TrEMBL record:
Active site: 117
Protein name as annotated: UDP-N-acetylglucosamine 1-carboxyvinyltransferase
Function summary: Cell wall formation. Adds enolpyruvyl to UDP-N-acetylglucosamine.
Residues noted as binding phosphoenolpyruvate in the record, renumbered to the chain: 22-23
Classification via HAMAP family: MurA
Cellular localization per UniProt: Cytoplasm
Annotated metabolic or biological route of this protein: Cell wall biogenesis; peptidoglycan biosynthesis
One example GO MF annotation: UDP-N-acetylglucosamine 1-carboxyvinyltransferase activity
E.C. code: 2.5.1.7
Organism per entry: Alkalibaculum sporogenes
Modified residues (2-(S-cysteinyl)pyruvic acid O-phosphothioketal): 117
Length: 418
């Protein structure tokens, strides 16, 4: 089994370049299904989830040309298949974007119910609500989703909860529907905007992405284009937290500072230094950090994908702080791992009370999911002694070259296969 071996206590110093956004790429890749021309996408992160999704598209009949580790050309002109039932599809949460893309292209789709990290109930009822509003018939039997429509007709759709996945999926289904589709209470995350921009470049007519009302006017045909994925907000935030936790000084490059405002605000509140530039940000840790309260919220609020790394940092602060998880109800499973290092954390439902000022000691830890895995690595960087992090498959789903990037910043981290 592969594991990271980390010697803690070394401040991070230097520069790190952020990869393309995982969550954006996972929406852009299936969107190529709707195009009848070549789509060249640059800055695609070289991570397991993305590579798995590209393989799924190949099985659907889409031709792909890998120009380099981060640039792929997609050719969906001759795709004929709207059914994908293999195990790869079952394992990926983002495979649900095949629903909107294949429905938009063929007016029918058959795929398994999606998987993903075990972080709580993640229903797709809002996706289904949107498809049905557009005129589709949805059947769920034996773990298989079967959706079909004679015609897709624009409609007004109000999402009962803010859902990134449902917002993107409805956009994918609606871009070639007849008439106008209005999505209210839409998600405003940067990757929603990125997918909308990509579709518009292909010839779609989407307005309002980044606000809570998105209007999609259907078009007859989408064409090829060239596009570059936005930088990864969560990867950038992870390195920001790591820099502060280790009392380091790190310049984080290839980022959009506006996407990081909620993270920067909390780190400043703690007492860290943040210096913003046009497409980079310098983060400097301080010896004494204040405890804070954090509540995860849809964008532009504090992202749920960074609450686990933030929990590690809050263990090092002076005083008591809280993290309230408002997005997922089962996202504190990693706390048991931190307790084994000496962390003082009490979980009550969706609230974690973190008593800071406790030094962490090295231990063997398990990455329980993708973002928890990143938190375990940060815990190892600040702990006394040696930490081993197992189940790297979760981490590698979402972080490109994490080990080598951290080593370039001075971290004492290596990978062992024993």
């Amino acid at each position: 089994m592969e594991r990271f071996i980390i010697e803690g206590g070394t401040p991070l110093h230097g520069e790190v370049v952020i990869a393309g956004a995982k969550n954006a790429a996972l929406g852009l890749i299936p969107a190529t299904i709707l195009s009848e021309g070549l789509c060249k996408i640059e800055n695609i992160p070289n991570i397991k989830d993305v590579n798995r999704f590209i393989n799924i598209l190949k099985k659907l009949g889409i031709k792909t040309t890998q120009l380099n580790d981060n640039t792929v050309i997609f050719d969906a002109e001759n795709i004929k298949q709207y059914e994908m039932l293999d195990d790869e599809t079952r394992k990926m949460r983002a495979s649900y974007y095949l629903l909107g893309a294949l429905l938009g292209r063929f007016k029918k789709v058959v795929i398994p119910f999606p998987g993903g990290c075990d972080i709580g109930v993640r229903p797709i009822d809002q996706h289904i609500k949107g498809f049905e509003a557009l005129g589709a018939k949805v059947e769920l039997k034996h773990g298989i989703i079967n959706i079909s429509a004679e015609r897709l007709i624009g409609a007004s759709i109000y999402l009962d909860v803010v859902s990134v996945g449902a917002t993107i999926n409805i956009m994918l289904a609606a871009v070639k529907a007849e008439g106008v589709t209005v999505i209210e209470n839409a998600a405003k995350e940067p990757h929603v905007v990125d997918v909308a921009n990509f579709l518009n470049l292909m010839g779609a007519n989407i307005k309002g992405a980044g606000t809570d009302v998105i209007k999609v006017t259907g078009v007859d045909k989408l064409y090829g284009c060239e596009y570059m994925v936005i930088p990864d907000q969560i990867e950038a935030g992870t390195y920001m937290v790591a820099a502060v936790a280790t009392k380091g000084n790190v310049l984080i490059k290839n980022i959009i500072p506006k996407h990081l405002e909620s993270i920067s605000a909390k780190l400043l509140e703690m007492g860290a230094q943040i210096i913003e530039y046009d497409d980079s940000i310098r983060v400097i840790g301080e010896e004494h950090l204040k405890s804070i309260n954090v509540k995860t919220l849809p964008y532009p609020g504090f992202p749920t994908d960074l609450q686990q790394p933030m929990a590690v940092l809050m263990c090092l602060t002076e005083g008591t702080g809280t993290i309230t998880e408002s997005i997922f109800e089962n996202r504190f499973k990693y706390v048991d791992e931190l307790r084994r290092m000496g962390a003082d954390i009490i979980v009550d439902g969706r609230v974690a009370v973190i008593n800071g000022g406790k030094s962490l000691s090295g231990a063997t830890l398990k990455a329980t999911d993708l973002r928890a895995g990143a938190a375990m690595v940060i815990a190892g960087l600040v702990a006394e002694g040696t930490t081993e992090v197992t189940d790297l498959k979760h981490i590698e789903r979402g972080y490109e070259h994490l080990e080598s990037k951290l080593r370039s910043l001075g971290a004492k981290i290596s990978k062992s296969s024993t």
